[in-house]
Structure formats: structure tokens, C-alpha cells
Amino acid sequence: MIYLFIFAFILDQLLGELNYKYNPIILLGKYINKIEFFFNGNYLKIKGILSIFFVILPFLLIIIYIYIIFKYNFFYFNIFGFILYLSIAWRSLIEHGLNIEMSIIEGNINMSKAALSMIVSRTVNNLNINQIYIATIESIFENGNDAIFAPLFFLFTGPLGVIFYRIINTLDAMWGYKNNRYIYFGWSVAKLDDLLNFIPAILTGVIYACCSFKYKYFKQSFLCSFKKFLKWKSKNAGYVMSAGAGSINIILGGISIYNNKYQYRPQLGINKIPNINDITKTCSLINYSMFFIILSFYFLNNI
Fold first, then answer.
1. According to the model, what pLDDT value does residue 214 have?
2. pTM for this structure?
3. Which of 162, 181, 192, 206 is the most buried (most CB within 10 A)?
4. What is the protein's major site of localization (predicted)?
5. Which helix (H) or strand (E) holds 130?
């Protein structure tokens, strides 16, 4: 397990996010679209469940084949180390956050909105500067769980667990919307993603608290996460973002725009409205949290 983690970590830092043309996750997305095209129709909840099965099935067969052919030799660990690298996005998440920050510093708000649109599902065109700060920080905290810490948690279940989580999380990102197209078809995958993320989200919130910048924020992070996340429509995301907000002493939530409609989200965190410096603090907290995970893996491997 430690070998898979180190190999994936090195690849992530060296390569970052793969080019769109060569990224297997993009190919997965195209395959998912074909499955949806075939199944989306009548009896949507049942077909949504069947769609999950048919998305996962070929990858399950490939994993079984790799295990039979290579078992636990050099190629086996390198193949699954590469799969773990594809499942985490530490470097690219930080790069996205800092790109948004740099665009704001340079006074190019339109460029910052374009960069923000790559990591959020909300409508960015009419966001003011404070809403850009909030959207950026919320997305980094939430994706810290979805794209970094949750896949690493599932590494304890083996490579198949990591692949299963990444597929379900990708399906949720594509089908987990409560609109006319997906409210029934994507229902099952949204529930499954919530279930899979429940424990990782709690652990991510604890990690954010442990890596907070000052001792008083450690307690504050726990208080924020447990007091305020229940009001959020996605409990896992609300818990993670509330813990992160408490860790850097800021307030998240408020009015935002989804599908060109204004939505009011409950307040998360405490004390002050974010500013440009808080994007840097958020990225730093993700980095500190990752170093915390690295040390934890090393410790667990040596006990």
C-alpha cells in the first residue's frame, strides 16, 4: 500500500493533471455519456441503478484480469499506482486555486471567472468579487475530500476500492443533479456517492482541524463542523467546508447562482468574510493536510 501511495504521489507532483487528449478520466466520461444515452428514458430510477452496474462492469473485469495475469509483481503495483495517481488531484487542485488568485491579483476578473468555472458547477458570470472568493474556497475544500483524501482512504480497501470510488464520484459529478434530466436517473448514484463519502468527509474535516493555523482554530473547526453542516443540502460537503472554514477563521455560504437561479446557502464557518489572502490559506491548509496524510501513511506502515 505504501508503495502505491508513494508512486502515485510522485506521478502527481511530476505530471499534474494529464492533457485532455490523453486523460483516461475524459475517456471514462465519454463512456458514461454513451451509457446514459442508452439507458436514460422510462423507469428512470431502475435504469439509473442498471447504468451504474454497466459502467463499473468492464473496469471490474479489467481489474480481475490484471490480478490474474500479474498478481502482486512489479507491473501490478505500477499499474495500480498509476490508477491511484489518476484518482487524486492534489497538484491540479492547488494550481486551479492559485490561478484564480493570480487572475484576481492581476485585475483580470473575467479570467478568474473562467478559471473558477473549471472547478465549480455554479453559474460564474454574475458573481461579485466576494462570491468568487467564497466559491473558490468552497470548491477547494470540497474537492480536497473528493479528489484527494477520499481516494486515499479507499486505498485501505485495495485498488478495486479506489477505482469503485472514483467511478461513482465521477458518475455523481455527471448525473447527480436535481434537474429534469437527472433527478430520477441520477438518484441512485447520488445516494451511493453520499454513502461512500460519509466516513472520508468526517476524516477530512478532522484533518483540516488538525492542520489549522492556530490552536484556537482547532477547537473552532470542530465546533463549526458539527454545529452548522446539518443545514447544508449536501451534508458531507457542508461538514467538510464548515470544518475548513473554521480552520482558517472565515465565513462561507450565502447567495450564489446555480443554473442562472439565485440560491441562498446557510452560513458555514465563523468570524469574517473571505478575502484574497484566504485563497492562499486554503491552498496551504490542503498542502498541510496532505503532508499530515503522508506522515500518517509512514507511521501506519511502520507499526
1. 65
2. 0.91
3. 162
4. membrane
5. helix 129-144
In total, the chain counts a number of residues equal to 303
Q: Is 55 a residue whose pLDDT tops 90?
A: yes
Distance CA 96, CA 102 (A): 10
Q: What is the mean pLDDT of the chain?
A: 87
Closest CA to 95 of 219, 12, 208: 12
Determine how many CB atoms are found less than 10 A away from the CB of residue 10: 12
Closest CA to 221 of 208, 230, 231: 208
The string of pLDDT tens digits covering residues 271-296 is 899 999 999 999 999 999 999 998 88
What phi, psi does 257 have (nearest 5°)? -125, 125
Of the chain, the end-to-end C-alpha distance in Å amounts to: 14
pLDDT per position as a tens digit, 121-141:
888 888 899 999 999 999 999
The span from the CA of 189 to the CA of 167, in Å, is 10
What is the C-alpha separation between 290 and 148, in angstroms, rounded? Answer: 8
Decide if 235 contacts 194 (C-beta within 8 A).
yes
> Cα–Cα distance between 93 and 18 in angstroms, integer?
13
Task: Report CA dihedral (88, 90, 92, 97) to the nearest 10 degrees.
Answer: 130
Q: How far apart are CA 56 and CA 188, in angstroms?
A: 14
Say how far apart CA 285 and CA 90 lie, in whole Å.
12
Residue type, 49: I
Please, what's the largest Cα pairwise distance for the chain? 56
The C-alpha atoms of residue 128 and residue 153 are separated, in whole angstroms, by: 36
